[in-house]
Design brief:
It is a single chain. By secondary structure, the chain is an alpha/beta fold. The chain folds into two domains: 5-196, Spore Coat Polysaccharide Biosynthesis Protein SpsA, Chain A; 206-280. Helices cover 43% and strands 21% of the residues. Strands 1, 2, 3, 4, 5, 6, 7, 10 and 11 form a nine-stranded mixed sheet that branches. Strand 1, helix 1 and strand 2 form a beta-alpha-beta unit. The radius of gyration is 18 Å and the shape is globular. It starts with a strand and ends in a 7-residue tail after the last helix.
């Protein structure tokens, strides 16, 4: 059991999910005292309930919503102050962590010099692998899944952490892109695995994720130029249509939901095309 790694969970109005996730990580052999749970401004008083369930864990609450990127940047600084070497980012809608999960990822990150980040294999809740090998995402070679990974805190902070302008979505690809520019690498650790539900808490937010997803995609492609103009345009169209398809799958919520979701997707594309905050970083 390692005490070099602080495992961080972001929770927002999903106490049932995060309790299951933390209990699963504990069952894999990680210590409760090496877990950080940050409540991103929930209004249901769940931080008090979590303190009762996990009395030894580090618990923090944001007084106003700070979103994914800023929250995990804070978690990295917090972990460094507490003397940790690594930060493990995990989603609250996860479970089924393999035995020795953290130790396996630490073994990967310590394998060679220049490796600063390590990623596990990921299955969905039906046990089907959704990330099980190295992939090319938006022109960037990725060996980590967006659902969770472990990194050296000092390397992460030296890169500037996640871009707080992105809020969420594409932040992992942007981080790895910047790291590769400085000769830093990642590694895939197939011995470590867990299950991820997907959209566990973002389902509650309805329209916001669609906007961020399309806007951030376009910002990234314009600023980093990892794809040709033609391939980038095809990717934007594909992401837009997949978002519309997802919104349509929730049509039972009512026609207003689908119209508002479609508007959010269109707005994300428009804002992405007209602005580019990543160019200022």
């Amino acid at each position: 059991m390692s005490n070099q790694t602080l495992a961080a969970f972001r929770t927002w109005r999903d106490i049932g999910l995060v309790v299951t996730a933390v209990q699963s990580l504990l069952a894999s052999g990680h210590s409760e005292s090496d877990i950080l749970i940050i409540d991103d401004a929930s209004i249901d008083g769940q931080i008090g309930q979590l303190a009762e369930v996990f009395p030894e864990a580090h618990l923090r609450r944001a007084r106003k919503g700070i979103e994914y990127c800023r929250l995990y940047n804070y978690a990295a600084r917090y972990a460094l102050r507490k003397g940790y070497k690594n930060l493990l980012i995990l989603n609250s809608d996860s479970r089924g962590y393999s035995q020795g999960f953290v130790d396996s990822l630490e073994g990967g990150i310590n394998l060679k010099r220049g490796i600063f980040i390590a990623g596990p294999a990921v299955k969905n809740f039906d046990g089907i692998f959704i990330h099980g090998c190295e992939k090319n995402k938006l022109g960037v070679k990725m060996c980590i899944p967006t659902e969770g990974y472990l990194f050296h805190i000092t390397s992460f902070l030296s890169l500037g952490g996640f871009s707080k302008r992105l809020h969420r979505y594409v932040e992992d690809i942007d981080l790895v892109y910047r790291a590769q520019k400085f000769g830093l690498r990642g590694c895939f650790v197939p011995e470590a695995s867990f299950e991820h539900l997907g959209n566990g808490s973002s389902r509650i937010q309805y329209f916001v994720p669609y906007f961020y997803r399309l806007r951030n995609l376009i910002w990234f492609l314009k600023a980093r130029k990892t794809l040709s103009f033609f391939d980038g345009a095809k990717t934007v169209v594909r992401w837009a249509f997949s978002s519309i398809k997802r919104a349509w799958s929730y049509r039972s919520y009512g026609v207003f939901f689908f119209i508002a979701s479609s508007f959010s997707i269109a707005l994300g594309v428009i804002v992405g095309l007209l602005t580019n905050e990543l160019e200022h970083e």
